[in-house]
Inverse folding.
């Protein structure tokens, strides 16, 4: 009887070990917000700009960059001033900008995308400066 119990315990332990080794590490992570672009876009896009809120979302670092009280702030959660807003329905611009501080070009973004009502993909060959690309509507709202 003890032999069967030992074998069962060993088999159970081996199955747990195999399960832990086979499962991807990020299976239990929360992942990107539901409004973030589909997987194919994530590889090409690092920052989402929300013109109505004058806010950025860094897909790579999973944080929000927003202007409040006269300075730029960073948060891993939706800033409290935007909690009641459905970001999935808000205007979004996918910036082809790979730097860490898209807010450096905020004046250009505010001017270029003011009053924009559709999701836009901005294509730009230059790494670091988002202002040279052309906007392209993907038809989603």
């Amino acid at each position: 009887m003890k032999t069967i119990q030992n074998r069962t315990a060993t088999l159970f332990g081996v199955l747990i070990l195999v399960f832990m080794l086979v499962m991807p590490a990020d299976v239990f992570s929360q992942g990107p917000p539901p409004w973030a672009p589909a997987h194919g876009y994530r590889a090409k896009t690092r920052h989402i700009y929300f013109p109505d809120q004058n806010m950025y979302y860094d897909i790579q670092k999973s944080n929000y960059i927003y202007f409040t009280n006269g300075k730029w702030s960073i948060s891993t959660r939706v800033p409290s001033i935007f909690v009641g807003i459905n970001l999935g329905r808000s205007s979004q611009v996918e910036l082809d900008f790979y730097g860490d501080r898209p807010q450096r070009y905020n004046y250009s973004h505010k001017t270029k995308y003011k009053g924009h009502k559709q999701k836009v993909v901005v294509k730009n060959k230059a790494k670091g400066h988002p202002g040279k690309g052309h906007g392209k509507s993907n038809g989603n709202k």
User: Anything to note?
Assistant: Residues 23 and 52 are 40 Å apart (CA to CA). Confidence is low (pLDDT under 50) at residues 123-141. DSSP finds three helices and seven strands in the chain. The two ends are 65 Å apart (CA to CA).
